[in-house]
Structure formats: C-alpha cells, structure tokens
Amino acid sequence: MDSIYASSTCTVPHLLRRETLFLPRTSIPSSSLRRAKKARRARVSSSASTTTTASSIASNGAVSRALQGVSNKSNTALEQLDIERGVCIPFRKYSPEIVRNKVLKSRGSILSLMLRGVEIVWNLGLYWSNLVYDFLVGRDEEVVPYRARQLRNLLCDLGPSFIKAGQVLANRPDIIREDYMNELCILQDDVPSFPNEIAFRIIEEDLGQPLEAVFSKISSETIAAASLGQVYRATLRATGEDVAIKVQRPGIEPIIYRDLFLFRTLASFLNGISIQKLGCNAELIVDEFGEKLLEELDYTLEARNLEDFLENFKNDPTVKIPQVYKQFSGQRVLVMEWIDGIRCTNPQAIKEAGIDVDGFLTIGVSAALRQLLEFGLFHGDPHPGNIFAMRDGRIAYVDFGNVAVLSQQNKQILIDAVVHAVNEDYAEMANDFTRLGFLTPGTDVTPIIPALEAIWQNSAGKGLSDFNFRSVTGKFNQLVYNYPIRIPERFSLVIRSLLTQEGICFTMKPDFKFLEVAYPYVAKRLLTDPNPALRERLIQVFLVEEGVGMKDDHGIP
Question: 20 to 30 A Cα–Cα from 542, which one of 30, 271, 300, 406?
Fold first, then answer.
C-alpha cells in the first residue's frame, strides 16, 4: 500500500522508542499530510543548537532541535532516510550540521582538516592512479587480488574511520565488485589492538576508581579487537561473576568526527557519479554511514540495545542474551555478562561437546526470523565470532553495537517481494524494490525485470526446498553493480545477517536447507502473528510452497 509515515513523539517509553505509525495516504486529506510532514520534521532529531523560534517550540523536550540549522540539502537527505525506514529516531546523534559544529569549534581545526584532507586525497589518489594504469595497460583483471589486498591495507593505515568504511563496503555490492568485498571481509576480525595500559586507564577514568576496586582479576591479553574498541575478560570483586569489558579506542571520537566531515565534503564532488551509478547522491551514502558509526561509538546506546534484546527474548528459553552492568558502563566502557559457550568459529568443538547440531541450527534460524519478522530489531553483525553455542543447546549473541530496525511497513514489503518472486510476478517485485528504497522513485524498472527473472529462475530452479541465500545473493550482487540500484544500509545488514548465519549452518551441516528449518516457525506465525496483514502475506508464501512440493517434504496436509 502506498503510505506515508508519521513517527510517534520522541517522548515514548524506553522499550517503545522505535515504534512508528503508518497512515494510508488515501485516507488523509492533503492538508493533514502537510501538517504531518511538518510535525515529523520537527521531531526527527534532538541534539543541535536551535534558533529562538525552535527553542520555544521545543520547551517540553519532545521536539527535535538538530535540523533547525541544517541546510536544505542536508535536511532532504536525512528526511529521505527517515521516510524509507519508517522509524522514529528520537535520539539522533548525527547530522551534517552537528558534525560540522563539532569539528570546527576545536582549536586548530582548519589546519588539522587540511593536513588530514591532503593525507586522504594523496593516498586514495595514488591508489586510484594505480587502478587507472592497470586498466590502460590491460592488466586490470589479473592484478585484482593484489589491488584488493592493497586497498585493505590502505584502509587500515588510514585509521578507524576507514576500517569501519571498509567493513561497510564488504557488504555493499552496489558500490564495489565482489572480489574486493571478499578481501575487505578480513577487516571484520583482523584489526590490531592497542596497549593494555591505555585500555586500563580508560576503564579507570570511566569508573572513577581503580580497577582493583571493581575487578578481582582481568585478562592480560585482549579477547577480541575491532575497529572501535577491544574486549577483556574480568571478574567482579563484589559478586565473583565473570564479565566482558569492552573498551573504546583512545581519542577516537574527534578522529571520527573529522573524517566524517571530510567524507561528506568529498562526497559532494562525487554526486554526479553516484546518481548515475546508484540513483542517489553520495552525501546520502555518507549520512547513512555516519549515523550508524556515531551510534556504535556511544556504548550507552549499545547497553540500551542489549536491554531491548533481553526484553524481546525474555520468554524464550532457547536464546541467551548477556546481562549488562550499567553501573560500571559509560560512553567508552561497557561491562556485560561473560558468555561461557563455544564460538561458532569452531564448529568441530560444538559437535565434540555433544550439542545437538540439528536442534541448534533450528534454534538459530528461529531466533533470526523472530528478530526480522517479529521484533523488527535485529543483530546487524552476527558473524561466527559473535554467536555462541551454549552447552545446554541454547544460542547466545554478543556485540550489540551494530543493530538495525525494520518498520512494520518494511517487513510487509519484504514479504510482498517474496510472494511476488514465488508467484513469478517480477514487475511487482521490481516495484517492491522502489518501495524499499533500492531504486529512486520514477526509475524505469523495465530493464531490471528480465534480470530479476533470471536470478530467481536460476536460484529456485530446483525447487524452493533447495533454495539458499548465497546462490541468489551472488547473482543479485552482479545486478546491483550493473544497474542504478542502491542497497539501503538496513537491508545490507539484513543480507549480511542472513548470509552469515546461513554460512554458519552450512559449516555445521553441509546439506542444510533453510526453508525446511524455517518451515515450523513460519507455520507457527500463521496462527499467532498479531498483525493480520503479515499473517495474510505469510499464508500466501505458505500456500505457494505447498504447491511446489513442500507439503511432501513435511507431511503437512
């Protein structure tokens, strides 16, 4: 259904802060639409300086202040993202104006920007000139593995902002080709740590007391290191409980803000290329990246994500979410329950521990589908190092800095796309892409329809029971690279989440079939989902699957 979104006010209770309201366009007079649009603009964000008029409007603390000083272009990009998501963001940490003010108010900012800008342009320009030279001499294909490694090393040398950008590019086939994506995936795990003494000093500064006062022991080596921080294992002195301590890299915040400012400045020169290639301007891509990066930089938000997941799975005995110790946590330090399980990086150890692999895979698929279809809040980085098999068969998740939200509308359109694919209605499937933000409204979908048909026919040719995400995603990556298709950030996370978890399943069970494992959950949702529109869509998928042989596989009449 063609609809607009009007977000709930930003004073919603904690557990409801991501709720949204969708109103059918046909049922609302145009004057009401204009009022709703103005109201939404006033509520989108909450952290920049305001004009006198805006301050008077925001006296109750419920209205946004950040957009008042932002240029019309910036407003347009952020509003487009909000409308696509259909989700209220009451505590927005990012806008181009916020970043600009934060960077320019610091002493020596102009000189710092100039030096950093020269460093970035010089290094990236040198790399680009090498690519051009390879093309001119006709060796561009044969040196791809070397250039991909060179790019990964270059991003590491340029610092945490670029490491994070590389991790994002590893899931963006609309921007770079697949062989480069595979190389950049190494950045997910292979990041050097910083010295213990610096990490321990940061923990003490945030705690306001010596380490020994809170922890009876702490590991001398990092358990894991990432682009924004690293993790230690410790024991609470008061209770004897084992905990994980996540510590942010020192001095990273001003570096991130400075780089985001430069990213967006450079993006303004690439808008023409981006519009031709992706159907959107490059600044919107940077805004998506900046929003997610600044959210990950604030560990208090990760603590809230943990609380939300705990609430969502509180009645599910098959899923373990670690407790968060907010009294010991802050913006740079996060203390949470230690998960004593077996990482999915070691599937052999899971089998040797006597864990029922089939049961564990079923639990994992069910938990993933609940996040996507039931809660609309899902783990955005479920790589094998972030998923554990507990010895009692439960699945456990860690690292909630990167989560994403799917609105009810987005969930319904996604299922619509599945129904249209199964029904071989590729024209409507292409229109679903526009509704989800993959294509700019008004884009001619005629050339895309045959490509979608070829992808689905090749992937599902043997029957839906043999369907797997990796086969369809590989062909989809080629499609988005060759057409003006942009993958919105939240859907790149959905794709990565499904691919990663499917990959874990194939590692443990080579003949794993996703739909066979997902079938019981889908059948259950047919009966229990409180949303009648979602139930109707699931029934359509269910009936089509029955018609292509899924009934025989499961014996359901």
Answer: 406
Query: What is the pLDDT, as a whole number, of residue 514?
Result: 79
CA 443 vs CA 13, 279, 311, 478, 544: distances in Å? 39, 8, 41, 19, 30
3-state class of 201 per DSSP?
A: helix
Q: Higher confidence at residue 459 or residue 12?
A: 459
Q: Which two tokens stand for residue 247?
A: 């510590």
Give, in order, the Cα–Cα distances in Å from 289 to each of 44, 168, 282, 434, 489. 18, 8, 11, 21, 8
Rounded Cα–Cα distance for residues 408 and 375 (Å): 9
Catalytic annotation, residues: 381
Integer Cα distance of 99 and 114 in angstroms: 16
Please report the pLDDT score of residue 109 as a whole number.
86
DSSP string, 272-286: HHHHHHHSS-HHHHH
- Angle, helices 469-482 vs 489-508, to 10°: value is 150
- Decide if pLDDT at 142 tops 80: yes
Per-residue pLDDT at 484 exceeds 50: yes
Q: Are 368 and 497 in contact (CB under 8 A)?
A: yes
Q: What span, in angstroms and rounded, lies between the C-alpha atoms of 33 and 62?
A: 21
β-bridge mates for residue 388, sequence order: 343, 396
Give the whole-number percent of the chain exceeding pLDDT 90.
Answer: 33
Consecutive H or E run containing 224 = strand 224-225
Taking a C-beta distance cutoff of 8 angstroms, is the pair 56, 81 a contact?
no
DSSP secondary structure string for all residues of 166-181 = HHHHTT-TTTS-HHHH
Highest mean pLDDT range out of 84-93, 400-409, 507-516? 400-409
Cα 240 to Cα 83: distance, rounded to the nearest angstrom? 47
CB 484 within 8 A of CB 439: yes
| Cβ-contact 5, 407 below 8 angstroms | yes
- Write down the pTM of the prediction: 0.73
* pLDDT band per the 50, 70, 90 thresholds, residue 1: very low
Residues 6+ apart with CB under 8 A from 185: 170
What is the largest distance, in Å, between two alpha-carbon atoms of the chain? 73
pLDDT confidence tier of residue 538, bands split at 50, 70 and 90: low
386-397: buried (b, 16+ CB within 10 Å) or exposed (e) per residue? bbbbbeeebbbb
Task: Name the phi and psi angles at 210, rounded to 5.
Answer: -65, 155
| Cα gap 533→411, rounded to integer Å | 11
The predicted-structure confidence for 499-514, as pLDDT tens digits, reads as follows 888 888 888 888 888 7
Q: Is the pLDDT of residue 453 over 90?
A: no
